[in-house]
Amino acid sequence: MSDDAPRPSGALPPFSHDDWAMYLRQTEHGPAVVAFDALAAEVEPGGDEERPWPAGLRIEVEILDMDEHGLPAHELELQELAEVEELLEGLLAHHAIPAKLLAIVTVNGWREFLVALEKEGVADYVLRKLDRKTKERALQVTTCEPFPFLRDHVLPTDEEWQAELERRSSLEESIDTPPTAE
After folding, report:
1. What are phi and psi of 154, to 5 degrees?
2. Helix, strand or coil for residue 151?
């Protein structure tokens, strides 16, 4: 299928972020912002059942304008990274490659997209297509088993999730507390 061919009528809808959770994680490389599909995390395929998403891709995209922590420094950089996500989603839909975005991790000058796929063997194809469209950014595309990777490397531990809930609660309290007059 050529790049300017119309999208197939059976193409998946855009990547949805409706049921996502987000937390901060401290890594050996610095702070990480982790967002993941909470519903997908709850329904991990397992056992001998037929797995609907047997293949996965980790797509790492270089952040060009980052702060001292390796996170995007400005709104324009965030917009450009969102465009890379839209490009990825459009590429997969345009070529009728059923996919589900499971997680986005931003750390140490890179934004990583974890994508589950119904088909195996598309990593080289995706890398070639993305590389042509994002020439100024370094890209790394590797294959993985999506749900074990999600479980082992993305989902928060109980301690991390508790720390995130406490951080949010503290933030809400600071917002709800009116400033005192001096």
Report:
1. -115, -50
2. helix
